[in-house]
Automatic annotation (TrEMBL):
Native organism: Candidimonas nitroreducens
Gene Ontology biological-process entries: proteolysis
Cytosol aminopeptidase domain boundaries: 354-361
GO MF terms held by the record: manganese ion binding; metalloaminopeptidase activity
Protein name as catalogued: Probable cytosol aminopeptidase
Entry annotation: catalytic residues: 286, 360
Length: 502
């Protein structure tokens, strides 16, 4: 999609298929809406008196207004003016973008970001607008027949109407939002692809393709033999159950400016993504209902690839390294069995009491591998526990960290990018649940606090650096029905966090 700004003062003369303007519940109009209202002899105030309540995220289509060049004016509800916030603004942009896509428009103009908001500056509002438009235009068609694939004229051009003084800042925000949207859409696409297409090898190919596309990215894909030489016994034990070859993917972003001599290099930030391309549970097999959704068990990996894509597009001044342990978790004659003991790359032994707790088994070796970079921080992202959905639902990702400063930066980034997380505890008292009679510790800690004990397990591999863990089991995709599909979360949170560190 093409993003741009428009700086004309005469909004009523903008020629576009759809022009978005905002209204509040108390009958107040945004400055842009006021211009349109005057040009159309009060058409907007008229509908505000009658059929339009201006609830947040609602919209009303007004066609062919007299005195207005836009084919449609889309009046967007902004709720109460005193309560107007970054979140309401983002919701309004989403409502407009979704309308445009549903109406099969190819271009549109929004005035919404130009209006002041107490909780978000102009750049942030422009970013939210671009992120909303870019994501609304996403459409999954990779595995349909030809006819389905060619059907849609999609939103191709999206412009923000701003004042001349706002232009430079709006451009900056637009660029960031566009990059985030593309990262999000890549993560959604990878999540949505079926497991017979999106294999570990396929994910490795995506990393290589990104490295060809962006100069700042370098990809390396380790095969089973190389993973064996690294002694990743825990990761390999999960991979053994499937014929599909595993892959350990390394995707590195080196800042454009970092190559010059004399520039002191900051320590890198490492992102580790769970890449289980299908999780049947292994010998501790899952029930059949909704098992298809376990193709999404690589959404952590997808978010790492999406984030690195965005980071490269932005040209971020911070080294970022993505690590992805990728394999399938299937039952077979070579699969892990409950009671098996494996030796992780760290040397610590693990008693596998449930083969369905495989995410932590692949992540732990990647966390040990991360030590070699002497990272400033390591963040792992994983669809790790069903228990996290019970705790937080589909609203917040679960955040665990032993480092308060890192946790706070991630929470803040999540709020700023409208991709929130909620911190859960990670105390030594929970570690006791992982006690094992036959190994250094077990891979499960019983039903109580399942997300916490999973994080506790991971923490045993992270003593060398500041570390945080995002459990995205509830936020990475939407289940069932028409809404079913990858969300691309937490790409916005991660990109925003990395921007804050650069
Ligand atoms: N990939 C699942 C977690 C999951 C379940 C994510 C449902 C999204 C929806 C993970 O590998 C898993 O199976 N976890 C087990 C852990 C248990 C055996 C301790 C779980 O949550 O049931
Ligand atoms: Mn599992
Ligand atoms: Zn899993």
């Amino acid at each position: 999609m093409e993003f741009s700004t428009l700086t004309t003062a005469s909004l009523h003369q903008i020629k576009t298929a759809a022009l978005a303007v905002g209204a509040y519940t108390d009958g107040m109009l945004t400055p842009a809406a006021d211009v349109i209202d005057r040009a159309s002899h009060g058409a907007l105030r008229e509908v505000l008196k009658s059929e339009f309540q201006a609830k947040p995220g609602s919209h009303l289509v007004l066609r062919k207004l007299e005195g207005v060049s836009a084919a449609r004016v889309i009046l967007i509800g902004l709720g109460k003016q005193q309560a107007y916030s970054a979140a309401v603004h983002a919701k309004a942009e989403q409502a407009f973008a979704n309308y445009c896509v549903q109406a099969r428009l190819t271009e549109a103009v929004s005035t919404l970001a130009a209006t002041e908001c107490a909780t978000a500056g102009l750049a942030q509002r422009a970013q939210a607008a671009a992120a909303a438009a870019g994501q609304a235009a996403y459409h999954y068609d990779a595995t349909f027949g030809k006819r389905e694939r060619n059907d849609a004229p999609r939103l191709k051009k999206f412009a923000l109407s701003v004042t001349r003084a706002q232009n430079a800042e709006a451009q900056r925000g637009l660029h960031l939002g566009a990059a985030i949207a593309q990262g999000v859409n890549l993560a959604r696409e990878l999540g949505n692809l079926p497991a017979n297409v999106c294999t570990p090898t396929y994910l490795g190919g995506v990393a290589r393709k990104l490295a060809r596309e962006f100069k700042s990215l370098k990809a390396e894909v380790l095969d089973r033999k190389q993973i064996e030489s690294l002694k990743m016994g825990s990761f390999l034990s999960v991979a053994r159950g499937s014929y599909e070859p595993p892959a350990f993917i390394i995707l590195k972003h080196t800042p454009p400016g970092a190559k010059g001599a004399g520039k002191s290099r900051k320590a890198p930030i490492v992102l580790v993504g769970k890449g289980i391309t299908f999780d049947a549970g292994g010998i501790s097999i899952k029930p059949a209902a909704s098992m298809d959704e376990m193709k999404y068990d690589m959404c952590g990996a997808a978010s790492v690839l999406g984030t690195l894509r965005a980071v490269a597009e932005i040209g971020l001044e911070q080294e970022v390294i993505g690590l992805i342990p990728a394999c399938e978790n299937l039952p077979s004659g070579r699969a892990n069995k409950p009671g098996d003991v494996v030796t992780s790359m760290s040397g610590q032994t693990i008693e596998i009491l449930n083969t369905d707790a495989e995410g932590r088994l692949v992540l732990c070796d990647a966390l040990t591998y991360a030590e070699r970079y002497k990272p400033a921080a390591v963040i792992d992202i994983a669809t790790l526990t069903g228990a996290c959905i019970i705790a937080l639902g589909h609203v917040n990702s679960g955040l665990f960290s032993t480092d308060d400063a890192l946790a706070d930066s991630l929470l803040q980034a999540g709020r700023q990018a409208q991709d929130t997380a909620w911190r859960l505890p990670l105390e030594d008292a929970y570690q006791e649940q992982l006690q094992s009679n036959f190994a250094d510790f077990a891979n499960i800690g019983g039903r109580a606090a399942g997300s916490v004990t999973a994080a506790c397990f991971l923490s045993r591999f992270t003593s060398a650096y500041p570390w945080a863990h995002l459990d995205i089991a509830g936020t990475a995709w939407r289940s069932g029905g028409k809404e079913k599909g990858g969300t691309g979360r937490p790409v916005p949170l991660l990109v925003q966090y990395l921007l804050s560190q650069a």
